[in-house]
Amino acid sequence: xxxxxxxxxxxxxxxxxxxxxxxxxxxxxxxxxxxxxxxxxxxxxxxxxxxxxxxxxxxxxxxxxxxxxxxxxxxxxxxxxxxxxxxxxxxxxxxxxxxxxxxxxxxxxxxxxxxxxxxxxxxxxxxxxxxxxxxxxxxxxxxxxxxxxxxxxxxxxxxxxxxxxxxxxxxxxxxxxxxxxxxxxxxxxxxxxxxxxxxxxxxxxxxxxxxxxxxxxxxxxxxxxxxxxxxxxxxxxxxxxxxxxxxxxxxxxxxxxxxxxxxxxxxxxxxxxxxxxxxxxxxxxxxxxxxxxxxxxxxxxxxxxxxxxxxxxxxxxxxxxxxxxxxxxxxxxxxxxxxxxxxxxxxxxxxxxxxxxxxxxxxxxxxxxxxxxxxxxxxxxxxxxxxxxxxxxxxxxxxxxxxxxxxxxxxxxxxxxxxxxxxxxxxxxxx
Length: 431
Description:
Layout: E1 16-20, H1 23-36, E2 43-45, H2 48-55, E3 63-67, H3 74-84, E4 90-95, H4 100-108, E5 113-116, H5 121-136, E6 148-154, H6 161-174, E7 180-184, H7 192-195, H8 203-209, H9 216-222, E8 224-227, E9 230-233, H10 248-260, E10 263-267, H11 272-275, E11 285-290, H12 294-310, E12 315-323, H13 332-339, E13 345-348, H14 351-360, H15 364-367, H16 372-391, H17 419-430
Parallel strand pairs: 1-2, 1-3, 3-4, 4-5, 6-10, 6-11, 7-9, 7-10, 11-12, 12-13
Antiparallel strand pairs: 8-9
Organism: Sphingobium xenophagum
Region (Disordered): 410-431
Protein name: Pilus assembly protein CpaE
């Protein structure tokens, strides 16, 4: 039985395949292939469409050259290619469009290089040499910790879900030293940046208005840094400006976060579950933040039921927040009976700590050090990390992305591309 292909194993893969649209490129590539000792018959007529059809029934090569000259939608066609391409294949694309944005989008999608037609033999040799170096370079070991996405949902307005989201993001970044992204999806009234005494900027509204701009460079420029390990993306859009989006921008942002950060904390208004349920697709852990009231009990039941049906992969934790030391409207025991499960974390109400956090522009967890609230926040952090660890590889856990889910990490490793070379290529295209 043949062993499955693994990164670095080359015995069962052809070194090179090409799919080109014109005779000049066909003859040139065949000539260079002969120089390198590769089989010229692996150079085929037909561009992207032929490549997708062929690779759907044959093994992927080490290096793939694909001509995009006849492609009407290059980025969509690249995603189609990803569906049939094995992990680790290094892809070189060629085309007639001299556009720096297209180049950046293709590189961000995982393409190793883009050659502008007509290209010469020396350009082709350089591109193939770099592709060989990338393919043969030692692969980094799989990260010890997969990316963790935590969704924070409040059952009612005013239960303090945003306070929990900012506290969790701060603890992950400060206490655990994990690079963390905090995404506040309350576009008009979000308070995540305000809670940390930061200006939200225009990053989130720009992303909604121009989803095609979202890439690693956009993330770097749009996010507001709270510390070396914590970055925030939020907004204070004008109340007169309705949010016109199908949610695609939010999903793209989360995809980029997976490449840049170890953790993503999403402050998700409950109405988003109705409008954009797909945002819960990759949430390994969901915090349902509630208060001990009759209305909150009703909505906790409804949200838990929705999560069971629509996000079964997510580990759910119920957090009772701002619980008064006196008699709450509903006792914890009666609340748990009504929702038919335990409250995982109870955070007591402390007016002094809350006021101190607001005055200092700090998260609740940071301001509550040494108090009962601080101890409860630490317990929450431990519960979240435990839920995420329990979910890795377990039934019902958030499964790792399968072949075809995303081109990133499948076709080449574009982040290993030398920065100086990428800048030079970008400058050349801009000229």
